Amino acid sequence: MSNLLQPFHNQNALANVWPIDWRVSLRRTGIWLPLVSAVVIGSGFVLSWLGKTAVTWHPLRIIEAILPLSFALQAAFALPPDGEPTLELLSSYKRPLPLIGLERLLTAFLAQASIGLIATFLGVSLFDIGAIDPGLIRWLPPTLFFGGTIFLVVQLTRQGTQGALIAILLWGGLFFGGNAAMLRWPFLQWVHAFLQPEAVSPANYAQNRVSLTLFGLFFTTFGLWLLRDQERVLGWRSKQPFTYWAKRAPAYLLGTAVLVYLVSVGLWIDEQIQRSEAPVCCLTPSDLDMAYESVQLTAADGITLAGWYVPSSNGAAVILLHGYGGHRAMMLPQAQALAKAGFGVLLYDLRGHSESGGDQRTFGWADVADVEAAIAYLQSRADVEPERIGIFGFSMGGQIALRATAQLNNLQAVMVDGPGFANADDLPPPQNGREQIVQLGSQITFQGLAWRMGLEQETAVIDQIDHISPRPLLLIATGPADGVEQQIVHHFYNHAAEPKSIWTIPEATHGTGFSIDPAAYAQKLVRFFEEALLEK
Asked: How does DSSP classify residue 276?
């Protein structure tokens, strides 16, 4: 065989010096599919511009739909046994097959990506749809996903035509049935190549695009790795038996699952610490007949906290803390109930939220020091008696309120609605294997959160809550008895010392307790602080 191929090798000696031969690769992958992509995308642009289609397609949606399928078809025939004679392949190159496969995939990808870049630029320019970057995020990850998937399928089956058929079926299934399937099986959101950014949250869309990219690169790498077995690829030896892949499939699946999980955790953490720019909307205390003052609190580290203060007429005041991602206006219903009863009310945006300073949110870990600044402000006011200050918190604000009361002696009472957890230990003890996995995942997540924020992990609420005694504590829990919120709140309650009480509102969901029965909620709120702060 070596003598037979020697003339071919000598003939291509110059080409063998340079590791890449784009001309040959372009000839093998074909220029027709990129040209078809350009024609179809251009036609879609024109029809949308003229309004001739039944639905006016978003220009980036057109690119997103066409390029993945076109690249997948090219990937199917990049290095198939039914598309290139063995002798021609061996005579043209003296390089490893994985390098040849990578060269051809890159050639096909660059051809399609050139069309995509030009089309994105034209779409942004002609349709005034924003920047180019979002356009790349629309079509680049699905293109990598489809191409990598089909390339791997072909290397496993050694049938280019079969890979092309699968590409068409996969494309059609995700394009026409992806949304319906995702509603039934939400986990499919990870690989829904045509997921619309306006249909999900920015974090979920980012997770989808990252997972598509990782899957595409992983499948491509796996397919190139399979090309190392030259004898099998060229048909000189039969394919690996089914048992060969069956033994290795669990490891591949587990590795992929771990990778996807770690990426999702990283994205979740990044979302949690980003500043919340939610505007303070849409009411102020004056809209609810409350005279108020705008205040600026300065935390110990210099962070400025923006807030409102409604003066007290009975000598007592209550600090109100909103939930994660919210703002102080969300606490106005509770503020109105307390103000009508004569209490002073201090509402402020948590650090990293809305109009307050801070370049990141801290999951409440750094917010206890901010409560100290709020207490100092109230103690400086002539209308407030220093020993008559309480605190109310919702969700993460509830978690902060519990820890602040446990650590600061100047708070005389605490009431919380649906408090969040500060640490994985705040979750109820796992009762089964699934809950043990969730507990382990939470520990990994909180460790990553601490590393990402540059802070030490906060001590769990359950390890501090008993320090609130002998000051009164009232916990509110919404949702069904077996729901997560009820379980967490009862977990806190069991670790708290007397005096303590719990009020459940099973017909309400997280954050809707006040709206379910405003009169009963307001009465419970006012009566608790009257007993704790005025009847001493």
From this structure: B
Q: Specify whether the CB–CB gap between 40 and 69 falls below 8 A.
A: no
More reliable by pLDDT, 187 or 353: 353
> Which carries the bigger pLDDT value, residue 411 or residue 130?
411
Residue 527 CB contacts under 8 Å (≥ 6 apart), including other chains: none
DSSP 376-402: HHHHT-TTS-TT-EEEEEETHHHHHHH
Fold exhibited by the domain 285-423+458-534: Rossmann fold (3.40.50)
Strand 304-310 with 473-478, pairing:
unpaired
Per residue in 450-488, pLDDT (tens digit) is 888 888 888 999 999 999 999 999 999 999 988 889 999
265-299 tens-digit pLDDT:
777 788 788 898 888 988 999 999 999 999 999 99
Instruction: Identify whether the C-beta of residue 150 lies closer than 8 Å to the C-beta of residue 166.
Output: yes
DSSP state for residue 532 in the 8-state scheme: I
- What's the pLDDT band for 381 if we cut at 50, 70, 90? very high
Per-residue pLDDT band for 444 (boundaries 50, 70, 90) equals confident
Dihedral angle computed from the Cα positions of residues 296, 298, 302 and 305, in that order, rounded to the nearest 10 degrees: -50
Q: How far apart are CA 352 and CA 303, in angstroms?
A: 9
How far apart CA 500 and CA 414 sit, in angstroms, is 10
CA distance 303 to 284: 23
Distance between terminal CA atoms of the chain?
101
Q: State the Rg of the chain over Cα.
A: 31
Q: What is the DSSP letter of 56?
A: -
pLDDT digits (tens, 9 = 90+) for 4-47: 334 334 334 444 444 556 666 666 666 788 888 889 888 887 77
Look at the block and give the residue holding tokens 């307050």: 356
Beta bridge partners of 310: 345
- Per DSSP, the residues of 151-202 read HHHHHHH--HHHHHHHHHHHHHHHHHHHHHHHHH-GGGGGG-TT--GGGS-H
The DSSP call for residue 257 is H
In angstroms, the CA 478 to CA 513 distance is 7
What's the DSSP call for residue 287? G
Under DSSP, the state recorded for 415 is E
Q: How many CB atoms lie within 10 A of CB 55?
A: 7
CA distance 395 to 536: 28
Where are the domain boundaries for CATH 3.40.50.1820 in the chain? 285-423+458-534
Spell out the SS3 assignment of 472-492: CEEEEEECCCCCHHHHHHHHH
Both tokens assigned to 8: 């071919």
Residue 344 CA from chain centroid, whole number: 39
Residue 88 identity: E
Measured CA to CA, the distance from residue 202 to residue 260 in angstroms comes to: 18
